[in-house]
Amino acid sequence: MMAPGRKFPARTLGEPIAISGPGGDWSKVRADLERHASALLYAHLDDWRPERAGGPRLRALLGRDWARFLELTHPDVRTRFASSRVLLKFAAAAALHVPPQSIELGYLHTGRPYLRGYDGVHISLSHTDELLLVGLATGGVIGVDAERSDRKLYGPGLGRHLCTAHEVEQIEAMPEHERNAALVRLWTLKEAYSKAIGLGMQFRFTDFGFESDGTVPTEVLRPDGTPGSAGEWTFRTYFVDDTYTISVAVGDAGFGGTDDTAASTALDSGIVDALAEVLGEEEVLEPATDDWW
Questions:
Q1: Rounded (to 5) percent helix, strand, coil in the chain
Q2: Residue 146: closest CA among 243, 219, 81, 48
Q3: Under 8 Å between Cβ of 93 and 86
Q4: Phi first, then psi: what are they for 270, rounded to 5°?
Q5: Residue burial 91-108, b: 16+ Cβ < 10 Å; e: rest
Q6: pLDDT for residue 8
Q7: Which of 4-13, 24-33, 171-180, 240-249 has the lowest mean pLDDT?
């Protein structure tokens, strides 16, 4: 918990970065991490289909997730699972300046992914339809979520499942044609915030809220509409390809970000030397490329 009365400096967030395959411009991701202590990137499923990697390469890229991948039986589910994890590993590798196949993901009991052996970069993942979304952050936690903007959410029972009383009042006061879009925005903000704090769907969406009118910047609110934080959280919603609504939540841990996310900086030099001897120094320290695709 933060100290009573403490105010956090305003954090800025960059625009979503489109990554068109493993050979995309990863320098933009590193630049946003340096400038904003966070980066948000998205890709289209067709650019990251796992069959393009081939069996041995895909297995190396998925690492511990390979067994879980084999257990999935539905083709679309398998594709989204593999593609989203590979994109996440390429993104993390770009931040850490290591090969993507050296990245290993772990999962909390809530399903939230994290980078094994390196806690300097926090990660979040979402995918829907043909869109893949990844968030990276230093100096705090991050959550991201994506939904089709035309997803139908408006209907009876908003106050029982999705909205606080304050949000229901705001939504019902809107013109009817604006209500569903406002709800999709609220849904993605709540999903992103829940992921960032590591609770996922265990945190009831009726227990916290946001402004429903599209106000930017927004903040997390109590059920009665009063502020629920002191500026340690930053939220943004974006619209991608005229099809998707994506939201990001970034929480400031109060220690500031880091300008150098390279894995070799955080590791003991003896460990780096040992890894270099086994894998070859160039493989340990060089940034990710598309050699493994």
A1: 40, 20, 40
A2: 243
A3: no
A4: -65, -35
A5: bbbbbbbbbbbbbbbeee
A6: 57
A7: 4-13
Alpha-carbon span 114 to 182, nearest angstrom: 31
End-to-end CA distance of the chain: 43
Give the C-alpha separation, 248 to 16, whole Å: 10
Query: Under a CB-based contact definition with an 8 Å cutoff, are residues 30 and 138 in contact?
Result: no
Counting Cβ atoms within 10 Å, is residue 74 exposed (0-12), middle (13-18) or buried (19+)? exposed
- The DSSP secondary structure of 125-145, one letter per residue, reads EEEETTEEEEEEESSEEEEEE
**pTM more than 0.90:** no
The SS3 assignment for 200 reads helix
Q: Pick from 59, 57, 85: which is nearest to 70 by CA? A: 59
Rounding to the nearest 10 degrees, give the CA dihedral for residues 278, 22, 27, 130: -140
Q: What are phi and psi of 182, to 5 degrees?
A: -65, -35
Per residue in 28-73, pLDDT tens? 999 999 999 999 999 999 999 998 888 899 999 999 999 999 999 9
Cβ atoms within 10 Å of 79's Cβ, excluding its own: 17
Helix axis angle for 55-62 and 75-96, nearest 10°, is 60
